[in-house]
Amino acid sequence: MTQIKDISRERSAELYAKAKTYFPGGVNSPVRAFKSVYGTPLFIKKGDGSHIWDADDNEFIDFCCSWGPLILGHNHSKVKEKVIEVMQNGMSFGAPTALENELAELILNNNKFIEKLRFVSSGTEAVMSAIRLARGYTKRDKILKFEGCYHGHSDSLLVKAGSGLVTFGETSSAGVPKSFADETIVIALNDPEALQKAFADFKDQIAAVIIEPVPANNGLLLQTKEYLQLLRDTCTQNGTLLIFDEVISGFRIGFEGAAGYYDIQPDIITYGKIIGGGLPVGCYGASAEIMSHISPDGGVYQAGTLSGNPVAMAAGIAQLSELLQPGFYEELKNKIEVFVKDIQQYADERGYKFKIFSIGSIFWFAFTGQESISRADEIDPASMENFKILHRELLNRGIYMGPSGYEVGFISSAHTKADLEKAKSAIFEGLDLVFSK
Ligand SMILES: *Cc1c(COP(=O)(O)O)cnc(C)c1O
Known about the structure:
This protein has two domains: about 10-75 and about 325-435, Aspartate Aminotransferase, domain 1 (Alpha-Beta Complex), CATH 3.90.1150.10; about 75-325, 3-Layer(aba) Sandwich (Aspartate Aminotransferase, domain 2), CATH 3.40.640. The protein contains 13 helices and 17 strands. By secondary structure, the chain is of the alpha/beta class. Bound molecules: pyridoxal-5'-phosphate. Pyridoxal-5'-phosphate (PLP) binds near residues 124, 127, 212 and 247.
C-alpha cells in the first residue's frame, strides 16, 4: 500500500495565515488548529447531508459532524426551513416565546428522568450551572469528577488527576485559582476503591459527583452499568447529587441519552450539542423539587441574555422532532453495526493492534491490543502517532475525522450505506499504511 498524493490546502493555508493574525492560534477553539495531525486546518465553506467542502473545493464525508450536534447531517431541510420561518419574525427578544415551551415539551414529554429544565447557550454553561445548583442545593462545596471526563471549560472542571489514588485536582489550565481546584476531587474512572476512599476522606463534603456516563472526550471510555449504578447508590447514601453530563450522549445514544440507555436516574442532567440542531443551545434539568432552587424560584442565580433564543429553539425543535420519528435510532444503529463489525474484522484478520469501540452512533479508533478501555490511563499516548498517519490518509481519501486521536467520530442519519462503504475502504487502506511500517 502506497501513500497517495496530499490534497491541496492552498486556500485553507492562506485563510489560516490571516486567521493567525486575528485569533490566538488562528482559531476560536483550540482543537481546530490541527496541532496533533498533519497540515494546516481545513477551512470549511459548505456542508450538505453527510458531506462537507473546504476552501480548496476538496469534498469529504464528514465524521466530525460539528463534534456531535449534527445527528441529521448538514443543512437538513426541516431544520433549515424551521430556522428561516422563525427568523422572519426577528432574532431575539429577551422575553419569553412560545418556542421555548415547544422545545421543553418535546424534551420533557419524552424523557422520564427530568421534570423541569432551563435553557442556556452552551454545554459549558449547562454544566457550570448544574454544579452551582448542586452546591446550592446540598450546601456543600466539593465536587468529584473523573480523569478523562471533559465538562466544558469552567474553572472548577478544568482539573485533572495528579498521582495517587485520590488527589486534589491539579489544574489543566493556567488561570484557574488553586483554591478553586482544591474544591475538585479527581479519581480514575471505573475504580470502585478510589470512589469509596474519596467519600471516606471527604465525608459530608461532596456536593456532586459529575460524570459523562458515556465518556467520549478522551477516547471512548465505556463504563459498565454496574459502575454507574455504584455511583448512583454511593451518591444516594451520602446525600450527594449525581450529575450526568450528557452533552454528547444526550439524544445521541437514544432520545433519553445514557440515563435511558442504562436506566439509571441521575439527580441533574446536562445537555448540549444535539439539542440545538447546530445552533448554540445547552440545558440542564432535574426534578421539579431540585429545579425549584434556581432563580427566580430559588436562591441559585443563573441567567442569560440569549438563553432560549428563538432561532436556536427553532433548530432544536426541528431536529428533536425528527429524532422522535419511530425507528430513528434503530435505523442508525443497524447502519453502524455493520460498519464497525467490518472494520474490526479487517483489522483482526491482519493481526493489527487496533480496536474500533462504539456505542450508538459514536465510534473511536484505538490503537490498542486491549479488548476494552475504561480509564484514561489505559490509553497509550504513543499510539496517537498512528492516528496522525491514519488521519492524513483519510483526508487524502475524502474522509474527514476530528483532528485528534482522543476524539470520537459521529455518524449521522444522512450517512448513506455508500458513504460508509467508501469510508471503510479508505480506513482499510489507511490501516494498511499505518501497519506497513
Ligand atoms: C462538548 C461538551 C461540553 C462543553 O460544551 P460546549 O458547548 O463546547 O461548551 C461539556 N460536556 C461534555 C460531555 C461535552 O462533550
